[in-house]
Amino acid sequence: MTKSSRKDIIDRLEYYYQVINKTIISKQNASSGLMPASTAITSHGDYTDAWVRDNVYSIYAVYGLALAYKRLDDSTGRAFELQYSVVKLMRGLLFSMMRQSHKVEQFKQTQSLEHALHAKYNTKTGETVVGDFEWGHLQIDATSFFLLALADMTAGGLNIIYTQDEVDFIQNLVFYIERAYRTPDYGIWERGNKINHGQPELNSSSIGMAVAALRAINGINLFGARGGPSSVIHVLPDELTRNATTLHSFLPRESNSKEIDASVLSIIGFPAFAVDDPTLIQRTKDQVKQKLEGKYGMKRFLRDGHQTMVEDTSRLYYEEQELKVFEDIESEWPLFFTYMVLEGLFTGNLDQAKEYQRKIDPLLVNSLEDNEDGLNIPLLPELYFVEKHLIAAEKENPHSQSRTPNDNVPLVWALSLYFLGGLITEDLLSPSEVDPLGRRFNSTKLAKESIIQIVLLSEDRDLQSTLSTFGLETQTLEHVSSTTTVLPPQALVDVYAGLGLNEKMNMSGRPKRPIGVLGTSRFYKIQGQTYAFTPHFMDNNEFYMNADPNYLVSEFESELSFTKNNWYYPGRPTMVVVLSHALLGSDVSEPSKKNLLNFFANLRTGYSKDKVRVKLCRLAETINTSNIESLDFLIHKPQVDWQRILRIAHASRISKKKLGYNASKTQASTPGHRTPGMPGSHGGGGRTPKRKNTTFYGKSLASPLYKTHDENYFDELTNALHKLKALAEPEFKLKAHEDKPFIVQSPPFDSPPPLLVQQLEKKTGTVPSAIKQDPSSSPHEMLSLTLGDDAQFDQAVESLSASVNLYDQIDLLQYMISCRPATYYIESLDTTTTELLEEVYLKSMRSQYWSIARQAAGLLKKNVPSLTISITDLVIRQKQVSIGSGPQEYLISMPVAPDTLKTMISEHCLDDVREGPVVQEILIYLGNLIRTQPHMFEGILRLRTHYIIIALREEISRVHQTDEEESVELLMQLSPFELKSLLNTILSGPSLCHHSNNTNNNNNTSTNTSSTTSMVHDRSSGFLKQERDIIPSLDSSTINIKAQSAGYFSGNFATVEINGTIMHANSRGLHVWATSLHRTDHIILERASFDTHISKEESQALVQFLNWIQPDMIFVIACKDECVERLTEEAIHALEQLGSKKIRDLKYRDSYVLIGVKGGTGGGGDPDCILLESHQVATEGPTPILQTTFTMKSTDPKKEENNTTQQQQQEPISLDTVHQYFPTANGRWLRRRKNDGALNRVPTHFFPQVWSVLNQSEGLVIKSHTLPRDPIVLEKTPEEFNFAIAVESFLAWFSDPAERQVAVEVLSILHLTKTKKTRHYWLDLPVIIHRAIELFWSKWVHLNNLHLDFEKTDHIELARKLFFDLPLEGTESTGNYIQSSIDLLYK
């Protein structure tokens, strides 16, 4: 550096010192170190208080100038003075917050507004200035920004923290902000919802600042180079990751009420640099510039009325219809141009920095502060507003009128950032000095892909020996090196409870919440001893879901993918898995257990199913390559009893069995179990009726969905209850004990629903008498038990003592717990009711009786620990969740605390004790799916758990041909993995009609009817799932077929293509497609699916279908996932009769496909017919694509005509046959609409389109309910989440899910029409739909010369069903008829 250049630098630094001193430092209070946001007191507020956020921003210019002097090796003392001005302010804020340490302690548990740290303090004293509820104090971004600055300044060499008490407080501030991802706050503008009515929201700017703070302060030693392990700040990786993924999901949106906000500039750029996705950064920046930028700065958000000339300053809030008034005249803030300058300077985008520096220059207000020196001090106003007389012109032509600065000049926060940018621009300071941690490089770092190390341990030598027979080499716990101790995840929770523990301030440290997979995928050291912790998701003591090995496999795969995508730490992640007898049970060869073991065995290939790189290792091999975290802070925490934690972790769980158990007796009572010779059985096999009915708030899961909203439904239900009074059946009927165990007697199919009777008893106070039993059904004496009536409590205890049937036991315990407290001590059994429930719960999990497990979990009020995380994952992605139904339905649109959620489920899931656990399962599955497969939720805004359960029930009923009541019981019997798979099926709505737009319509003339083929329905098994596809022939002579199969580990699919139409198998097992070889205008394809992995009944159904296939029918058979576990010898023989040569070679999860003609080559028939077959073992990938072409055989036209005439003569028109005269998709589109309606799915950009439709009409109508244009359009913007919620709530008035989906189609078509004819109309959606159905019915009745009156109720219902089964597009589509209806109604 030359002498002249040094002098120039000193001169420029002197200039900055003078202007910064006069505008910022001079305002710092001499005693407290705090400074006011401004000296202005205006009609909009008193700015003389010290806001946390404004103080930190304001001091950044001072900090930057101190660093610039430090670089110069200053000898004038100014570097020291400036540094300690920064230290004094930061410590002033620290002291103000430490005075509220009790609030921090409470907030860690409650996240309640009343327990939030205050957002501003008295500038002179640091004391609070307003009450807890007199200001929007909860501002997580402000607290986070303080921690971020503290980390940067400490890393930059400043000593701000002096004592261990202060370290502990800072650690607790980390716990204060680590749940920002699920904590609604008032945000950077202190108002929450833009209406400013006191309702907090989740804000991207708050979450983003928390992400930046957690990243920055993790591992920082607050005592600097002289500190020890006790002064290091710890951030758990899972908490950081949850915040980061939430932020990624939120952006570019700021909150539910603000679709975009200029404050997000502070998190995609300086100071946070919280986003690591360059594409998302650019998209967010582009939206801010497009929607908010003006000549004088940027709007804070759309329709922001703050300090506009039309704002009513006499009140803090806005009226709903008032917001439209502020459109196009929102105040513009120069502050945001300074963010753009700094972001450009820090990221090397100098063109952007120069552009916005040029835009700032004309906005500066120069003040001649020192006449002697002639010092010009640039001042930056808070905002520029439109004068009142210019408002009309500005609205007419936005950005055309001049604006005026307000009285708050300067806004110190903005001026500080302006000066900081100037220091960097003039090269007096470098970005690396302000950002010593390198956070500005987050978005340019190369992605790191680590191998996940997996260590498998056996509980003991016996299990180790058993597992070795399956090719699984493991170590036992006693073989692990003496320097490494393996502990359960709860032990790590207990350890971290000591972090930040401080008795002087009454601070408890980290709340005892589960630690995620990232936290347990590292090793920990305490004084040289290494500890490993097993992952929390493998702990099946928390909830029954993890007792299902198949579900555990899917969960493990999900956690592997999550770890791969979110591991940013040194070393490799290491998962230590302990395989126990409790996890695997006594029979390791059971299919689901084998599935789990096969999963681990297949990891030896080096890859998981999702192509995550893994490595099976011994524990000692992983030490040198793993991430290791120090826990030496415990040394200085005498309050933490480490030895006690170890004793609890090592203590073996002793199970004291009080009740008997007989597996065969329990299995015989399982609903759905086939009992030969049962009354009502078909073909020699019957299904045991359901044990009890399940009702949710008077709306039974077994009730038809379309009736649950009918106005007379509940009146009819009440009348039915009165009629049942004399014939009511008690809830429990138990055989009195003789020499055999007690068995719960299932009610006959025509029995009244027991829980409805129970509700009647509660209302009338009368106990119904027992229904007279069929003497042949039970020769034993019956017990009649009523919940809450303890008259037979002692007999119930006696029965329980003798029972070996889990179904008996759980029902008896439910009765007992309704009569006595859960802690009631039963002397004869020497235990409490709760302990007995826990025993039954444990037995049911190990024996995989899932209905019992759900019932026990409900009675024990068990909750999934990670449930709130799943709720948060849904709501942050703009999904509403509802629990309960009808008047008791509770909508969740923001994260809720665990205790609140627990109460909500217990209060809204009352009538069936199993509903609460099932709701929790569904929420967990939805949370997992939205994290891993977000595309499945496209178009879904509101997830109503009750309606999802009904959709699951409908799918079971469709697949198994069961009635509603049986379907509910089958639903409850599903394993967690099966329930998750079924949920996955109904969520795949758009794929339900994939390549299936062809309707079954052979009506070329009015006399033609669609051809039919025999349908096979075996209601005794209930497993046959046969459907029909209509495929156009490629030409008149050939059928071209391609087929391919992939087992579970080879891709998990089965695909068939016939004449260009592609069809996918949607479930596990063998899938069969069959069609005639005879020439027709269309290929009528019969198809069916058989899960031969799960039951022999499915194999029997497969045999029946293969026997049904006629000679000269082409068949394609393909396996998806797995198909051999329950494939019977009879089924194998049937496949060999078709020509298979390789079916006996199939092993577990192999790939297999077979194409041929019945009676063709290989089956003893025509040698010209081709038979193709392929088999691949599970580890060798999918089969090759088999491809062949069949020549179709000619058909005698006269014979066909005669057959058609005879068929018409034999089949008179009736409600059962009339559908043959109408186009139909054989239920596929109806099924899709039902599912999508239950899931509330809408098309892309649907809600902005509805906004446009609403804006061009008077409003929308559904029966007596309306959605008016005003004030909805005046208050809400098209892409605002709250507008979407309003539309969704309006559409909920449709009781039929399929009709709701057609209404969605109506609104989309109205938008595309873009007509002005509707401007003065109320658009009645049911009327439009009804007219479209009428047009459809009239057309086809006329074409076929049918005499059917549309106005008849039966005909209307049939017409609705047929209309709802039309495809979306085409000549014969709902869209075509809806457009015609609109044209007729609104001419």
Task: Produce a short descriptive summary.
The protein has 1387 residues and is an alpha+beta fold.
Radius of gyration: 36 Å
Helix-strand category: alpha+beta
- The low-confidence parts are 672-781, 994-1025, 1162-1168, 1203-1211
Helical amount among residues, as a percent range? 40-55%
Keywords:
ten-stranded mixed β-sheet, alpha+beta, 40% helix, 1387 residues, four-stranded parallel β-sheet
Description:
The chain is α+β, with helices and mostly antiparallel strands and 1387 residues long. Helix content is 40%, strand content 13%. It contains 48 helices and 42 strands. The strands form 14 sheets. Strands 30, 31, 32, 33, 34, 35, 36, 37, 38 and 39 form a 10-stranded mixed sheet that branches. Helix 11 packs antiparallel against helix 12. The radius of gyration is 36 Å and the shape is globular. About 11% of the residues have low confidence.
Task: Write the SSE topology.
Elements: H1 3-23, E1 41-42, E2 45-46, E3 50-51, H2 52-71, H3 78-98, H4 101-110, E4 120-121, H5 140-155, H6 164-177, H7 204-217, H8 237-250, H9 265-268, H10 278-292, E5 293-294, E6 297-298, H11 335-347, H12 350-360, E7 365-370, E8 375-379, E9 384-385, H13 391-396, E10 404-405, H14 412-425, H15 431-434, E11 452-458, H16 461-468, E12 475-476, E13 484-487, H17 489-496, H18 517-520, E14 523-526, E15 529-533, H19 549-566, E16 574-579, H20 581-584, H21 591-602, E17 614-617, H22 619-622, E18 628-630, H23 642-650, H24 663-668, E19 674-676, E20 685-687, E21 695-696, E22 699-700, H25 713-724, E23 732-735, H26 754-764, E24 782-785, H27 793-802, H28 806-819, E25 825-826, E26 831-832, H29 833-847, H30 850-859, H31 867-875, E27 880-883, E28 890-892, H32 898-908, H33 915-932, E29 942-944, H34 945-960, H35 964-973, H36 976-987, H37 989-992, E30 1025-1032, E31 1038-1047, E32 1053-1058, E33 1061-1064, E34 1069-1076, E35 1082-1090, H38 1096-1108, E36 1113-1121, H39 1129-1137, E37 1151-1157, E38 1172-1176, E39 1186-1191, H40 1197-1210, H41 1228-1239, ...
Helix pairs in contact: 1-2, 1-14, 2-3, 2-5, 2-14, 4-6, 5-6, 5-7, 7-8, 11-12, 11-14, 17-23, 19-21, 19-36, 27-28, 28-29, 28-30, 29-30, 30-33, 31-33, 33-34, 33-36, 34-35, 34-36, 34-41, 38-39, 41-45, 42-45, 45-46, 45-48, 46-47, 46-48
